[in-house]
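Repro:
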Amino acid sequence: MTENYPHPADGNDLPTRRGLRARTVTDSSAEWWNQPPQGGDGEAFEGRDAAAGDGVDDFEGGNLAGVGAYGVGGGKDAGGFAGAGVSPVESVPVLPPLPAGMPEPARLPEAGRSPDPLRDAYPAGEAEPPASGDWTDETAETTHQPVSRAEARTERSHREGRRASFLDLQPAAIPATKGFRGLLAGLGMRVAPSADELAERRDMRAVSQHWPGPRTVSVVNGKGGANKTPSTVMLAAVFARNGGGPVLAWDNNETRGTLGWRTEQGPHEATVMDLLPQTADLLSPSAQSALLARFVHHQVEDKFDVLRSKPDVLASEQKITAEDFDALHEVASKYFRLNIVDSGNDESAERWLRMIDHTHQLVIATTTVEEHAEAGALLLEALAARGGRYAELARNAVVIVSQSDRNGTDSQARRVADGFGELARAAVTIPYDPALRKGQIRYDSLKPAAQRAWLAAAAAVAEGL
């Protein structure tokens, strides 16, 4: 009796173990498929694997009893063909490649090893099924699924050998508060903030941070009238109003410093010259911060304090040495988290040079006037030429370009700022605002555009602290 077995080219499904992955076997011999079985009529091959005794499906009505998975299997006696006394086959042809889309046959277990249906279905290097438990469709679909932050936090805690927290520490989303989006949010709608509002929040967060130790910011330019004093006042106001804590604006100018004139005066007329003799007492362990109220002038609205110079006397009468500056700076660093120092125009003065030695962040104040910008650039180049820490201060400097002309344009300020691109870390432009021209300076007296610009400038400064 001769029967034709299905050939792959006929498009018929080949027998394979359902649910398992099979290995492809190839050969150029296709005629073997249509050869009559050797050994007469044997058992029908229904779901029996030649080696393992199970697993090959749908071989019905055939005469083959000892060949499983298209190789030499050995029937129930694991030795060859079961049938009418036929000896084992010495060589078995290998099948040609299967057409695309056709399932692949299962492979036989290796010689000398007990068969394992699941293990044999996975070639070396491929993922193996679970070591225990039933193999189900759910098990087969264990792909990477998105996990929540809480699940990820729990998994990370398990890996690190600690208990996962029940607390959700993610900050709550804050809806829009400005513009039309803020209006909608005020009506009860959950509206996300705009990109501009998000940028403003980032700047506010930057200027609100506290650092592990006091910081000193020095505002410099060797040219008078370059907007050093207004820059000092505005930076102090932004940091104090947002970050809280004690912030000091210090007038380190021995030639008619005007910081005291541009800020609010306290209930006294004390200056830096009155504080200098008291530095030893203020540095003693028993000294209290409230004692400083005798020497500094608190700004009620803008929340910072001012240490004034004495502009009504000659420079020779308020000369401060490097040692004096060290003592004053030690007091300021003990009682204030942030010191913003307004400097004079004499870059050779002891107090000016010592100020640079204590500086953490350098700020070049300038206007759109060419002479002011050139003086600031020359100062940065001189510091860079000295090398070491001076060069580092210059590279990390922030340049604040204030529009000096009521009729000036943004492009003028931007051109000056761009000119500092290779000299400093950042350059920020400030629009013209009449509130900065004369008189006492209050943050709330500025227009919103100027307030936003000063917030951005302070955020750039905070990045270097």
